[in-house]
Structure formats: C-alpha cells, structure tokens
Amino acid sequence: MRSRCLRLLLSLALLVFGSAAFATPRALLVGVSELVNQPQALWLQAPRNDVMLMRDALQKQGFAAADITVLADGVSGALLPEAQAIHGALGRLLAQSRSGDFVLLYFSGHGTRLRDSGKRYQEPDGLSENFLARDVRGTLGSDNALTGDLRDADFDAWIQAFLARNVFVASVFDTCSANSMTRSSTADSPLVAEGPADDEVRWRGLRTGQLVGAPGPAASVAMARPAAAEPVPRARYVALFASESHQITPELRLPRKSRSARPQGLLTWAVVEALSRKPATWRDLFDGVLAIYPPVIDELAQRFPTRELPSPVAEGNLDAPIFANRAQPVSTRPVWRAQRSGDTLVLQAGQLDGLVAQQPLRVLATMEDGTLRSAEGLLLQAYTDKARMAVPPALRELSGAALWNITPLREPAAAALRVRAEQGLPPGLSLEYPASVIAVGEADDADVRWSGTRLEVLSPSLGAGARPLPADSAAARRQLEMLARLKWLNQLYTIARDAQFDGFDAVFEVWNGDRLVRSGPARQAGARLLPLHSGERAVLNVRNTTGRSVDLVVVGIDPQGGARQVYPEDSGESNRFKRGTRDAPSAKRFELPWFNAEGGRLLVLAAPAVPYSAPRLFGAGAADAVSQVRVRGALQQDSERQTFAAMVHWAGDASSAR
After folding, report:
1. DSSP labels, 554-584
2. Residues 160, 144 contacting (CB under 8 angstroms)
3. Residues forming beta bridges with residue 41, ordered by sequence position
4. What digits encode the pLDDT tens for the residues 246-275?
5. How far, in Å, CA of 71 to CA of 50, rounded?
6. Rounded to whole angstroms, how far apart are CA atoms 34 and 45?
7. Which of 113, 451, 502, 594 minimizes the number of CB atoms within 10 Å of its CB?
C-alpha cells in the first residue's frame, strides 16, 4: 500500500512539475537575402550568413538542432522565407509550445515603414514598421498594406499568443524601417550598396517608393495570424532591435580586417560575439553588444558621413536570466553602464536616476572570457544625468577590455520616505528604485507618522494632514508606498524643472465628449484648467518636433494613491518616443480617466535621445514595471542633456500646477 501511494505521489509530481522540468528552448530563424519580385540592386548578401551564425551560436547555448527552424534563401535544407511560410512556421512553433518553454524569434533582412490607420495602437509618427518577406510586392492594396510583408501588428499578435501560453519570448530584429535614411532631407532614395566590391557595405531598410510591383496580379492569401486577445503582461518578453525606427542598419564583412570575414548583419555578429562572454541576463548580453559597436560605427561614420548610423534598442524584462522562462529578475536594482578613463569610471546615470554623491555602489567588471570581478566604492560626483567615481583599488589592474557596470548597494537615504512608526513598518513594502521607506526615531525629522489606524502626513510637499486607516497592515503599506513614490516624483521634478528643451511640448487638455473645452501647457496647468466639471475628462497631448527621438516617461498618482503608468503603457515596452520634426511632428494623446478628483498628480519627464546615450525610466515607473532600454554604446557628451519636466497637481484649491 505504501509503495502504491509513493508511486501515486511521484506521478502527481511529474504532472505538476513536468512542464517546468522538461521546458524546451526553441527558435525560429528567418533570413531574407533575395526579394525575388524586386530589382537585384535591392537584394542583400548577409541574411543567409546571419541565420547560420545564429544557429551555430544557439546550439552552443544548448538548443537542439531539431528545435531550430530556419527559413532562408541560400541555406541548404531551409524553407524559402516567403510571407505565408513565415506565418506557417510561427503557427507550428506556437502549436509546439507549452507552458514554461522558451522561444527565440529572429529576423534578418529589409524593413520599411508605411502609414497604417487600422492598427490597434497608433504610433506617435503614424507609421507602421514592416519586415519584407522574399515575395514582397511594391503595390499597396486597398488597406494600404504591402503584399508579402509582416507588419509590426502581426509580430505583436504572435508574441501575445506565445505569452498567453506562459512562454518566454525573446525577439531579435536585425532589420530596420527607414523613413529618413540620410541627414539630407533633399536626398533621393539612397543606394542599398556602397563601397568597393571587396569591402561593400549594404544598408537594410527601404522606402516603399523603392519597391516595385511584380508582373500580374498579386495573389491574395489570408495569413494565419492569431486572433486578437486580451493583452498579456510582458514579464516574459525581451526584444533587441538593430536600430531606431527611422534609422538603417548595415551589413558588412565581419570581423573587420580578418581573412575569415564574410558579410554579416552588424547586430547579429555583435550578439554572437557578446554571447561568448557568457552573459547571465539579457541586460548583460545587450551591454556586451554595445561594447562591440563603437569601433565599427566609428569606421562607418568616416566612410559614410551623410548616413545616420544605427542605435540598437532593447525592451522588455532585461534583468531576466538569458534563455530561460523566468519572469523574476536576477536583480531588482538598476544596473548602469560605465566607461573607464584612467582611474575614473563615468556612469551613464545621474541625479535623475536616483544617484547622490557619496552613495555606496558595487562595481562589476566582466572580462572577455565571461569572468566577473566586483568591488565596492563610493560615488564621488553626481550631476543631472551623469556621475563619476574612482575605480576601486581591487579592480585597477584589470585590462581595458573589461565591460564596466555599476549597481547601487541600497536606495539613497535622501529619496526615502521617513516614517515614525510606533509598531514598526508594515511588511511587504515593494517599490521601484530609488523610492524606499525607512523608519526613524521620535527625535528625527520625518515625512509621516503612522500609529496603526492613523496616518499623519507631516511634509507639506506630500499634502500634510491626518487621515484614518483601516486596522490592517495592507492598507498602511499601500499608503506608504504611494507617499514614497510621490516623494521621489517631487524630487525628480525639482531636479529637472528649470531645464529647457526646445521642440518638445506637453499640453494638458480638458474634453467634454468630442469637444475640446480648454487646454494649456502642462507646465502651467492650474486654476484655468482645473478642477474638471461634470462630463469632462483629462487628456495629455505630447508633441516632439526636436528632430531627435526622446526618452519619455509619463506617470501619475490617482486620487486613491495608486501608481499609474501612462507612457510606456506596457511595462515591457521601450520608453523611446519617436523622432519628429516641425514638418512631420511625432505626437500622441493620452487619455487620463483616473485623473478625476482632488489629489491626482501627473508627471511628464523627457530628455532628447542623444546618439551613443542610454534612455532611462528615471526611476519613475510603476512598482511592477520591467521595461528597460539601452542603445549603442559610448558615453554621452560632457554637456548636460536638456530636460523637460512638468507636474500637474489637482490640489484642493485647483491652483497647484508646476
């Protein structure tokens, strides 16, 4: 009897844990070199090499050859990468996937952009990104869609379908979608290939005007895209992109000056090289990519001075372990890249990220063989968006080939909500760095006094006054978390409020139905705009005409004290707001249904995305946010970045907008 019970328990355990224990990593690799309905001058050389390089790299990471599907022209045994075949392969991969599995979706080839009014989510510039399959035709249909392409909405539907099955999805797009490919606004459609035949550079990214229609009518084929479903939180999602949406990306002979070099996509080659350092997380991998980019980019900048060169972007849960299905990050603390200059490390982060002088930090140095060295040190200087510290003595002998990263040991005391708590702090406090809550003594300065069923706010900037609380710790925890976020938002606004940022604006609008009732700059929204009356609603209109992409965060606190993430809307998306100009602005309206009573606050914080810089969330995300983004890799310029900051506060007298 006992033996039978043990066998039954073992069978139940296998049923419960089997899917996790035997989770399978799978990959779909798509490389489109030939556009058979297009002139050969538009064809590429490297995608067929890219998929083979990526396939070999994945097998070294433990992927079984049978679990890697390849669609590419010029690759033995591979299916042709036509639109219907790609959708079919995605459908088969989805059917194979089980809860706990991991999937890598990889695409190498040309991209383009076109206007698509039918999307569920409208881009700020109104354009849709499209990957061009082998059979793409240049004739736009009645729905303004190309035949033989895969739209960004298609990719989103497939990714959502995998996420709904509890599959971790990582995507790599060594492609681009070019809108303005050169710095000259009067240039004709640029050449795809440039340079001598023995060292040719080909550029990925076409304008729709460069594509031609094939002879005869295009076949109308219904692609088997998954049906739209409720969006799934992107905690199990990561994506790497070769460029921002308006840029192009190169393929060239890599490694440079090597006899074994062959045409490769720059992002693909950099990803494979970075994998050799044995990265533990997706952030480690992407930081490795960024360290590889500068020498190649510098060479291309000298050869092609009129080209706008690519800035790779990543989004999603970058702190998740690589090639695994785990939503929990390896570390919940931010990690910032740094560059060594002699005995000094310069961080790509500063006061806007929650750094203060004399703050204790941990310095991480990753060697070429993947060995990790670490030591502690103190921050010497913190500026608005950069900081400096000395290389810890224990790491000074390391070579220049090391990759340097820095993470805080604890939250800064200056940003912490200081609480006089008679019975100690409630358990389970959860906040995004740098916000935190600390207990202080009766004789110490405090922001809040908590006595079990009564919360008294002492700080005027947090709305001084007493408020009753239910006699449970969960209610106190929620209130303290809200006040801690509010304290950091106030500090963020104080740091950035006097900065100038020409070409970027945020307008606070009040609507009644489809009628605009009143509006004004968010920096000056006050008694003229608030309070809202019956039937009115709040809307934020953001407009970028700077000629550059923008790092943008819009967050709020509703009247009940809940944190509201406005942009990026999805915690797995990038906060890179698209480039706009005076002639073609990038703009987006955000509905604010939660901003409906006294106590509501809205913070808008933006900075131009300078080339070779890192966008940031400024520590202003909601508590469950996982979105982080990084771009290509050297330090930003010595000058402080311009910043835009606005805070709208619906106070009791409706006069507090700053």
Report:
1. EEEE-TTS-EEEEESSSTTS--EEPP--SSS
2. no
3. none
4. 788 999 999 998 989 999 999 999 999 999
5. 12
6. 8
7. 502
Dmax over Cα atoms in the chain, in whole Å? 85
What's the confidence (pLDDT) of residue 637? 41
C-alpha Rg value of the chain to the nearest Å: 26
Give the residue ranges of DSSP H helices in 125-245.
152-164
**Residues in CB range of 555: below 8 A, 6 or more apart:** 489, 563, 564, 565, 566, 602, 603, 620, 621, 622
Name 453's Cβ contacts closer than 8 Å, sequence gap at least 6.
Answer: 468, 469, 470, 471
**Secondary structure E strands in 295-415:** 313-316, 336-341, 344-347, 360-366, 372-382, 387-390, 403-408
Can you give 303-331 as a three-state secondary structure string? HCCCECCCCCEEEEECCCECCCCCCCCCC
pLDDT digits (tens, 9 = 90+) for 283-331: 889 888 988 898 999 999 999 988 888 888 888 888 899 999 987 877 7
Q: Are 389 and 371 in contact (CB under 8 A)?
A: no
Number of H-type helices and E-type strands within the chain: 7, 33
Q: Tokens standing for 554?
A: 């819009």
Distance of CA 36 to the CA centre of its chain: 34
List of E strands, 94-224: 102-108, 111-115, 127-137, 147-151, 168-174, 193-194, 201-204
Chain segment 36-68, per-residue pLDDT in tens: 989 999 999 999 999 999 999 999 999 999 999
Measured CA to CA, the distance from residue 112 to residue 427 in angstroms comes to 51
Q: How far is CA 493 from CA 29, 39, 563, in A?
A: 45, 53, 16
Q: What's 55's DSSP letter?
A: H
pTM higher than the cut 0.85: no
- CA 449/CA 461 separation, integer angstroms: 15
